[in-house]
Design goal:
alpha+beta; Alpha-Beta Plaits; extended; 2 domains; 6 helices; Arc Repressor Mutant, subunit A; 46% helix
């Protein structure tokens, strides 16, 4: 009886040690961000097309050191991807709808099912699982109100478990910013 008890105890201690080491590594990555890394992240948010040489010059380090830092930031998950911000008006995508969604069941299975379906819809630019009356808020852009109606009737309300939707149309964009403040 004692041997099996000690085996279980050792396995549990090993699991706890592993969890602690993973958490420590995660915290250690966050702690390794210094002021130079913050400058790099801020500059890349303003212009992701900046060359390594320009970035190094603005921050005041050598290009090889800059390249190493950027690679470390990418590997650490601080830089997810490099993108271009498109002007939706130039493409005729001038209708923005914010759609509140209520689910009939609030269980992990229904939430997972809903999010899997939403991730398939190219019209959905953003989807937030929220606290409050509704369960999700979606942001979509389209060419016309008819396109929004088609999305609502032919796609969104066809998802099993959706009990109610409420759509609001944006009249004008007062502020639109993609840059995250890094201090």
């Amino acid at each position: 009886m004692k041997k099996s008890y000690y085996r279980i105890l050792l396995v549990n201690i090993d699991n706890i040690s592993y969890i602690i080491s993973v958490l420590f590594n995660y915290l250690n990555i966050i702690m390794k961000i210094d002021n130079i890394d913050k400058q790099i992240l801020n500059l890349l948010q303003e212009n992701a097309r900046i060359t390594n040489v320009e970035l190094a010059s603005k921050v005041g380090i050598s290009p090889p050191a800059m390249l190493e830092r950027v690679k470390r930031l990418e590997k650490g998950g601080f830089l997810k991807k490099y993108i271009a911000v498109i002007n939706p008006d130039k493409l005729g995508k001038n209708i923005i709808a914010l759609i509140s969604v209520w689910l009939s069941a609030h269980q992990l299975r229904s939430i997972d099912s809903f999010t899997k379906q939403i991730n398939k819809f190219e019209e959905v630019l953003e989807c937030y699982h929220i606290a409050g009356e509704e369960d999700f808020i979606l942001k979509i852009m389209s060419n016309s109100i008819k396109d929004v109606e088609d999305f609502l009737l032919k796609k969104l309300t066809k998802i099993q478990g959706v009990s109610k939707v409420n759509t609001k149309f944006v009249l004008s964009t007062v502020k639109y910013e993609t840059k995250i403040k890094i201090e």
